[in-house]
Specification:
39% of the residues lie in helices and 21% in strands. By secondary structure, it is an alpha+beta fold.
Length: 420
């Protein structure tokens, strides 16, 4: 990017600027969509500065045997090159050196260089014949871009109060390991005389390489932390006595029952405490009901604006996570299950919704597109564009080779026995 920053625009210099830069293969594909490396490729391609990339033979340089690439950049492309990128695979175009020079064992002859320059100058598409020679392909800029689309699935939870699950509330989930050790080691002393145990608890955390920061260590050795967690556990035990221990397949109804019972007990919990309690007694199950997130109400022209942003019709809103209810302009949203979250790379030239309907929905009907999380990435794969399939040898050929090797090995063994 530093070299690109030094390019003079055609407004300053009529001919503009051109750059030739040698890179290894990582510049072509390293980095995910939205990351620094991908954004650099995006910047160069969307500004139409990438003219061509030439793949060179392996072992062409003295100190490395890796594949190298020449990137050609220009901020004043001729008209016939605008909006296009040429990829030239010259990886098989070389001649061997009579004597290796370190890792360098080949070179480009003047004829090879002239061939590469001709193909580049003519913006020619060339098919490789046989195993040697040069290949070239011309692409539109958008061919290298893709949408990284996040695909969500609904959270489905079962829930049940049991003594074993409730016992986990004794510990802060973020500090579970050291708190569990302290409780198993010291028992009730963690509530009565925590100060005298502080050094041993901190030493344990350091010996176990838990990498707790200063704030976490302070929380771990605070009496208030232990008292708070015990209070949460005791409250859950009270709820179990009144709500019972039946397993619920509808987390929505279970959470509502807990909420009503807490109001009856005149107990107020913070959102974080309530979540910790419900998390402790619930788990994902594909057969459970979907967990509702809430109702989204659209007023005035809000729905029209949403449809315009999503590029869909009202009946397609479920594909984007909005499900119709009995009331007009009200849509139900579900909580997402992060462990089932997935991503799809959709070519820039293809519509996200059309791709979703063809490649995702038939396999996961309850999935939806999280369009707000979509990122744009760019990558260039020479293997993808220039790979040539080599058919496997026939079974007869392989069998003949195996039989020949067996005959040769038996002959060697007979010779050895004769000599012995």
């Amino acid at each position: 990017m530093e070299m690109v920053d030094k390019m003079k625009s055609p407004e300053v210099i009529p001919l503009g600027s051109r750059i030739a830069s040698v890179h290894n293969g990582s510049s072509l594909f390293t980095g995910d969509a939205g990351g620094g490396e991908s954004n650099i490729r995006r910047y160069l391609i969307e500004n139409d500065w990438l003219e061509a990339i030439i793949q060179l033979p392996n072992n062409l340089f003295y100190n490395t045997g890796i594949t190298t690439y020449i990137w050609l950049l220009s901020n004043r492309k001729p008209a016939h090159r605008r909006g296009k990128v040429q990829l030239i695979d010259a990886g098989q175009l070389y001649r061997k050196l009579r004597k290796n020079l370190g890792a360098k064992n080949c070179e480009l002859s003047p004829e090879h260089i002239a061939e590469i320059m001709r193909v580049h100058a003519e913006l020619a598409a060339v098919e490789r014949t046989g195993e040697e020679g040069l290949a070239s392909k011309v692409f539109d800029n958008r061919d290298f871009g893709y949408y990284k689309v996040t695909i969500e699935r609904p959270k489905r939870l079962k829930a049940q109060f049991t003594p074993e699950r409730i016992a986990e509330l004794r510990f802060d989930s973020r500090l579970r390991e050291p708190m569990a050790w302290a409780w198993e080691t010291f028992g009730e002393r963690v509530y009565e005389d925590l100060k005298s145990l502080e050094k041993e608890i901190v030493d344990y955390a350091e010996k176990q390489d838990l990498n707790l920061n200063k704030k976490q260590l302070e929380t771990l050795t605070k009496t208030e932390t232990w008292q708070k967690q015990r209070g949460l556990m005791e409250l859950a035990l009270k709820l179990m006595q009144t709500l019972g221990t039946d397993e619920s397949t509808d987390f929505n109804a279970f959470a509502l029952a807990v909420e009503l019972e807490l109001k009856g007990l005149s107990t107020k919990l913070s959102a974080g405490e309530k979540k910790q309690m419900l998390d402790a007694v619930s788990w994902y199950d594909a057969d459970a009901e979907k967990v509702k997130k809430g109702i989204k109400k659209f007023r005035n022209n809000e729905l029209d604006l949403l449809l315009q942003r999503l590029g869909c019709t009202p009946d397609q809103l479920p594909d984007f996570g909005y499900y119709t209810t009995a009331k007009a302009n009200e849509y139900l949203e579900y909580e997402t299950e992060s462990d089932l979250r997935d991503t799809e790379n959709v070519p820039l030239g293809e519509g996200i919704h059309a791709y979703f309907g063809r490649e995702v929905q038939p396999h996961v009907p309850e999935a939806w597109i999280n369009l707000d999380a979509t990122k744009i990435g760019y990558e260039i794969s020479f293997n993808k564009y220039f790979y040539r399939h080599k058919p496997l040898r026939s079974l007869e050929e392989v069998s003949a080779d195996i039989l020949q090797l067996e005959e040769e090995s038996e002959g060697l063994i007979r010779n050895l026995l004769t000599l012995a």
